[in-house]
Amino acid sequence: MSGRGGKATLIAVVVVLAWLVIGGVAGPYSGRLGEVATNDNAAFLPTDAEATRAQDLAGEFVDRQTIPALVVYERPAGITDADRQRVSADAARFAQVSGVITPLPPPIPSEDGQALQVVVPVDDAEGEEIGTVVEKLRDIAGGDRDGLSVDIAGPAGLLADLIEVFSAIDGPLLLVTLVVVLIILLIVYRSPVLWVFPLLAAGMSYALASVFVYLLADAGVVKLNGQAQGILTVLVFGAGTDYALLMIARYREELHRHDRPWDAMRTAWRGAAPAIIASGGTVIVSLLCLLVSSLNSNRALGPVAALGIAATLLVMLTFLPALLVLGGRWAFWPRRPRVDQADPQTEHGIWSRIAGFVARHARPIWLSTAVVLAVLTLGLTQLGATTLGQSDLFTQRTDSVDGQEVIARHYPAGTGSPATIFTTERTARQVTQVARGVPGVAAVRPLTGGQQTGPPDPNAAPKVVDGRVQLEATLADAPDSDRAERAIRDLRVAVHRVPDADAVVGGFTAINVDTSDAAERDQNVIIPVVLVVIAVILALLLRALLAPLLLIATVLLSFAATLGLCALLFRHVFDFPGVDSSFPLFAFVFLVALGIDYNIFLMSRVREESVKRGTRAGVLAGLAVTGGVITSAGIVLAATFSALAVLPLVVLVELGTAVAVGVLIDTIVVRSLLVPALAYDIGPKIWWPGRLYRANGERAARDAR
């Protein structure tokens, strides 16, 4: 017997050492993901989007693609000669910055004489280094001085602010996530030792996921952006800790029945692994459904997050069990489990009492909880999905937001970010006239040949490339506003009607329009696909049809209630103007996939207990045993997604809040009350038409006799 124990210990040591070596190699990559991330919205558009085709055509009219930084100077009392001298001196220094395309066009004065604007073209090939270029421009321009304010806005300024936000992922976000998980594990286990095991395993999962994501992004197989990187961090630590809690809870149960930790772990692994694999597999498949998205950004998030879950599954089913075997009973100090053959329910007094309450009031419980959730869904009328404007993207003031507001006060708000229209040379004049007549378009002029060093020449000949010309339409409203988007839609309708024009409309605002349209299409396609996939997985796991359908119905109800509650919070507590067009889809994928996790944890154990005890007794036993671990797991996941709030970006704060609220509703209401009460009330029919349905029905008939 000692020989078997020694061999088991040796295997555990080898597994742990092997993983530590892997962690040593993979660890550094977790801090290098920012090197292969890109945050250019246009790069994530569908290839057949009109804005994408316009971007391709724009490349034929210039030697190098540029993204404009708009340096705007404002003096409410009126720009002075000294101000003009300062602007000219700054512009000369801007031209010397590496990454800036010269010569710069002359400063543009506002009609009211209170502002000057310098358009600084930045080489688009700089990629993520655009943030560095903009920082150099900000250093040159300096701060406000003697009543003259200066801000840097435009697409380059906005991109620089986004890059700065996402740079916090490798540091503050990861640190906050670790601290949150650590605190919750200390509260859950009340042990100075046990918290180390799940946290170390979660860290190993993140390192392993990072190396695969880095290599794939570096090779161009996937496109990683800051949003996907942030979600990867919290998802791996949240889901990893969930799986660890489930494994550790089952291991503790088996230590009451087995003398040797190896035997306890072997039994625990057999009991917990199927639920963990099914749970992780459901999340992976749900995330991979994003591959059918028309947006490259969504298609990137799917495999990136799926890789994170796959790495987490591998670590939690190998590295964590080996650590626990080596830790033995001492890992649970000071509450070490003894071999006493105790029923698992005896260690869960509170949840045994909750199970008894469910048994006595099953039908009123599931009816009342369903009604409460249905009432919360009424808040969906306040959701108001839209494309967030630049001033609404951040939770705090940024230089690019301040600059855009200055531009809107003194210029046509679309100055510096014009819509681009490509049409044939023969129809250019007609298209220009039509475009000028569109509401929301302030001016239209052709792109001329050569570099502009003075005021625009209205008589200059347009530049012609392969029989096409490029027109620039300045919008009257801010390029990221709802009114600007309506203008783009109207502009497209108008120029598309011109015979033989073959007109294509692009630019910053057009990118937002096409992104919003693609997001709406994705919701209509991906959500049904995810539901079908989850239904199939649940049917295979539970070997029934009725139970999966009811579980999916509870998850959908929980999802709708979460969005309704969040809509009220966003509007009346956080004072957010709305949600981004991508929010409903992301919220659905994460809430439904993760919500099904807890259904799987509960119902797989209920099925196991139903085989031994009968359905209704199995429901109560499953609830009593898993209630504590599922609630703990839900709190961990909610807390880790709440860590997204450290990034001052509205879309991530909204997503983190939605997942946190949804997971808490799932664990506290749906999984603790609604599902068990519904399953208890239905009885053996819940397993229809499987073998367990027939076996439990026969048992119930015998008991009745």
Task: Give a structural overview.
- By secondary structure, the chain is of the alpha+beta class.
- The protein has helices spanning 2-26, 50-58, 81-94, 130-141, 154-166, 169-189, 196-218, 226-255, 261-288, 296-316, 319-327, 349-360, 362-376, 390-393, 399-410, 428-436, 482-496, 508-542, 546-572, 583-613, 615-642, 650-682, 691-704, and strands at 66-74, 108-109, 115-123, 149-153, 419-424, 441-446, 464-465, 468-475, 504-506.
- Helix 19 packs antiparallel against helix 20 (583-613).
- It starts with a helix and ends with a helix.
- The model has no long low-confidence stretch (mean pLDDT 85).
- Pfam families: MMPL (PF03176).
Low-confidence stretches: none
Q: How many E-type strands?
A: 9
Helix content: 55-70%
**Main β-sheet, in a few words?**
5 strands, antiparallel
Overall shape:
elongated
- Tell me the fraction of residues in β-strands, as a range: 5-15%
How many DSSP H or I helices? 23
Radius of gyration: 30 Å
Q: Mean of residue pLDDT?
A: 85
Structural class computed from helices and strand pairing: alpha+beta
Give the N-to-C terminal Cα separation.
48 Å
How would you concisely characterize the structure shown here?
This protein is of the alpha+beta class and 705 residues long. It has 23 helices and 9 strands.
List keywords for this structure.
transmembrane helix; 62% helix; transmembrane; single chain; elongated; alpha+beta; four-stranded antiparallel β-sheet; MMPL_dom; 7% strand; 23 helices; 705 residues
